[in-house]
Each structure stands twice: as structure tokens, then as C-alpha cells.
Amino acid sequence: MLMWKRILPVIGGIVCLYALACNPEDVPTRHKIPKLSWIQPLIANLELAGTITPVIGEGVVVFSFSRTFDTQAPLMGLNAETGNVEWKWTYLHPNSNKVGPKDYQYSFNGTLVYSTKGQIYGVNIKTGTVQWSNLIYENSRDYNEGWSDLVINLFVEPQANKYYNEHLGVANVQSGAWKTGYTLIGDEIWRPGVSSFTGMISAETDTLLYFSGTYYRPDSLQSKPFLKGYNITTDTLLFEHEGPESFGFLEIYEDYLLAGGTYLRCYDRQTGVLRWQQNIPNGVNSSGVVITGDKVLVNDGDNFAQKLHLFDIETGSRIWQSEVIETSSRLVVHKGVIYATGDRELKAINLEDGKLLWSIPSPHAKTISGAFFAPVVAIDPKTDRLFTSDYVYAMCYQLE
């Protein structure tokens, strides 16, 4: 009996230490399933609705709302904390006949650049008012790429008795002022098509554009892929290569230019010289290439068994390849975790090893047919709020 009296306090101490070591508060918060903070219908009668990837402003997050198969999708600004509607376009903005719920919008310093097939807008995220619109971008692409206070958009200029001219135009985000553009002149023999573009402002304050695409020759069905770098400020071509394929995605990191297609290729940003390449058996998926720190995250293109791949950006060496993740949404990396939607669920994947941390279904998946997570995820790094939608509701999760 005396022995037990001596042993029990020791056992109790060990148990207490173990309990402290396993305190849930000590578990990395990014591994916890997030709490649903609010939901907001995209359309009053709860029809399925298309939406852009949420655009985050100061206290406001912007969605679009459109009925199924409806090409008209005005914008809606929600209070980021409560989900209450702050503003919305009741009707299409004047002078526009096609405003679609497109991805690849660009925002900077409180202004959202929202493009359409017909017009491009600069929208105040806080109020929803249109700061500027521009018809120079007639027949513009549905998406924009931007950096700092500049945005680029590809638009088409039809020509009589010829195919067309394609322009990569550069505008100021907040004023809409036209900066300049690079023209790819089409003629009767070769028809140019741009598949991807990106840009940057160099340390010397030069504006640089990088773009890839394919020259087509309709009379013979020949094609010539190309990759180009262009300095707008000095009006000089940095490099021009006949590439091995037309890349669907371009991303810049310091002196590296990443291009995604059947292969992931890394080029010297200034010369266009190939540094390394990695085969992606299923090709790069529509979610593209994400650069996080000095690592490159790639989603492959297999619609039924998608995997993620992580590479070292300097050497191209593979760090890991995930098990089947099944995600086609644009990937977001936040505090060492990859967030995406796929297979009707919201998922979190560990950036360190590619392991699935958790996945949750849409809260309305069992009650509303078709209400599964759309391929749209955005995170506010200041508040750790994650915004997404399920084609019926916009919603916010708090990452604890």
C-alpha cells in the first residue's frame, strides 16, 4: 500500500505532462478544420450561379452572380466580416452586353479590373462604383494579368481582308489610362494566337512583358509555337524563341520564367535560355503553376486522378508528388498549407509533404442538387479568412 502511495503521484504527474503536451491549443492551427463564419445567397431564389474567384478588398469581398447559362453576371460586394451585401450591380453596367463570371481578374489598391468581351472596367471594391471603363479593349480576353499598378489584357483588332491583329495592352489600374501595347501582326500567311502572358516592372523601372503562343498557317495547318520577352519602355525585344510547345501558363520569380504545358520548363527571364525542365505526364492543369517562396507548385491535368507536384525552382528537382488530390481550382498557399476545392470538397494539403490535412463537403451538398464547391478559393492573409462558393451561396470560413 505504501508503494502505491509513492507511485501514484508519479503516474499522475506523467499523465498531467502528457495532457499538457497534447493540449489542443498546441496543435498547429492550420491543421484544424475551419469554422463556417457566414453564408450569403448569390441569387435570391437560390438558383445555381456562376462566380469569379473572390476578390478581396479592405473589409469587402467581391463575388459575381449569374443564373445558369446566363452570360450576364454583375458584381456583388459583401462585408468580409458578416457577409452582408454592401453593394451590387442590379443590372448590367451601361454599354456592356456581355459581362461574364470570369476568373483571372486583377485588383490593386482598392480597384478591381473586371474585363468582358466588349469592355473592361475599373471597379471600386469598397463601393462598387465604376471608376473607369474602356472600349479600346473591344473584343478583349476574359482575364487580366497585373503587377503593381499596371494590368495587361489581350484584345483583338479585326482587319479587312486579313485575319486580325492581336495586341497586348497595358493600362493603369486606377485610372484606366492607356500605357502602351505590343502588336502581333497577323497576315495572310501566319495567324498569331497568344496563349499566356505575364509581366513585371524591373529594378530599372522598365515595363517587361512575357508571352507565349502559336503562329498558325491556315492554308497548310502548320504551326509554330513561340516564347517572347519584350521591354515596353525601351521598345526592344529581349528574346524570341520558337518553343517546343505553346505554353498555357507563365509565371515570374526573380530571374526565372516558369512555363507550363506538357512539361514544366524554367527559363532565364532575361535571355530566354532554358535552365531546366520536368515532364508532367498529364500536362499542367487549368489551375496552372504557383510559385511559393523558392518552390514551384504544379497541378497536373488528369481530370480523374489529379496530383500535385512540388519542385525546387533553382534546380528543378522534385521535392514531392502527392497522392491523388482531385482538384482543378486555382491553388492558394497560406502559412504552409495549400487550399483548393475538388471532388466536391474544400481541401487543405500540407505544403511540406503533399499530404491531405482535411477535406469538407459543402454545407448544402445534401439539400441542394449541384451545390458543391466551385473551383474558387481566396484567402485574406490579414484576417485568415477563406472565401469560396458552392454555386448557390458565397461563404466565408475562419482559418483558426
Describe the protein in words.
The protein has 400 residues and is mainly beta. Helix content is 5%, strand content 48%. The chain is built from one helix and 34 strands. Strands 1-34-33-32 form a four-stranded antiparallel β-sheet, with no helix packed on it. It has a four-stranded antiparallel β-sheet with strand order 3-4-6-7, with no helix packed on it. A four-stranded antiparallel β-sheet has the order 8-9-10-11, with no helix packed on it. Strand 30 and strand 31 (356-361) form a beta hairpin. It is globular, with a radius of gyration of 24 Å. The two termini are 48 Å apart.
Summarize the structure.
With 400 residues, the protein is mainly beta.
Q: What's the structural blueprint in terms of helices and strands?
A:
Layout: H1 2-21, E1 35-41, E2 49-50, E3 55-56, E4 60-64, E5 66-67, E6 75-79, E7 85-88, E8 106-108, E9 111-115, E10 120-124, E11 130-134, E12 145-147, E13 150-158, E14 164-172, E15 178-185, E16 191-201, E17 207-217, E18 222-231, E19 236-241, E20 249-253, E21 256-260, E22 263-268, E23 274-279, E24 284-292, E25 295-300, E26 308-312, E27 318-321, E28 332-334, E29 337-342, E30 345-350, E31 356-361, E32 377-380, E33 385-389, E34 393-398
Antiparallel strand pairs: 1-34, 2-5, 3-4, 4-6, 6-7, 8-9, 9-10, 10-11, 12-13, 13-14, 14-15, 16-17, 17-18, 18-19, 20-21, 21-22, 22-23, 24-25, 25-26, 26-27, 28-29, 29-30, 30-31, 32-33, 33-34
